């Protein structure tokens, strides 16, 4: 299952998430990484220095999703600004400046 507007696919099924008792707000494209992280946390009694690799992998996935949403929103704002600028004869100022590499 793939959500519209996202490059990541849902790997964990609804049944797996219900079985693992993943809270509804956390059932996103990174839930397949949260399930083993929570199991590791329970086994290791939530010690902060345990399960570091699982936590890092999960947090990286969440970060990538947030960045993807931010870029999509910026594109939408740029399109809206171009439409408004075309009507008024102005040019939009980008939220994130373009670098020499882009």
Automatic annotation (TrEMBL):
InterPro entries: NDUB7 (IPR008698)
Organism: Forsythia ovata
Annotated membrane topology: Peripheral membrane protein
Pfam families according to UniProt: NDUF_B7
Family classification: Belongs to the complex I NDUFB7 subunit family.
Keyword tRNA processing among record annotations: no
Protein name as annotated: NADH dehydrogenase [ubiquinone] 1 beta subcomplex subunit 7
UniProt-annotated location(s): Mitochondrion inner membrane; Mitochondrion intermembrane space
GO cellular component, one term: mitochondrial inner membrane
Main location: mitochondrion
Lineage of the species this protein comes from: Eukaryota, Viridiplantae, Streptophyta, Embryophyta, Tracheophyta
Keywords in alphabetical order: Disulfide bond, Electron transport, Membrane, Mitochondrion, Mitochondrion inner membrane, Respiratory chain, Transport
Function summary: Accessory subunit of the mitochondrial membrane respiratory chain NADH dehydrogenase (Complex I), that is believed not to be involved in catalysis. Complex I functions in the transfer of electrons from NADH to the respiratory chain. The immediate electron acceptor for the enzyme is believed to be ubiquinone.
């Amino acid at each position: 299952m793939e959500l519209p507007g996202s490059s990541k696919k849902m790997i964990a099924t609804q049944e797996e998430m219900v079985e693992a008792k993943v809270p509804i707000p956390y059932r996103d494209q990174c839930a397949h990484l949260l399930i083993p992280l929570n199991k590791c946390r329970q086994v290791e009694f939530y010690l902060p220095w345990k399960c570091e690799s699982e936590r890092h992998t999960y947090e990286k996935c969440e970060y990538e999703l947030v960045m993807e949403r931010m870029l999509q929103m910026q594109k939408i704002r740029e399109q809206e600004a171009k439409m408004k600028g075309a009507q008024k004869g102005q040019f939009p100022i980008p939220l994130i400046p373009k670098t020499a590499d882009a």
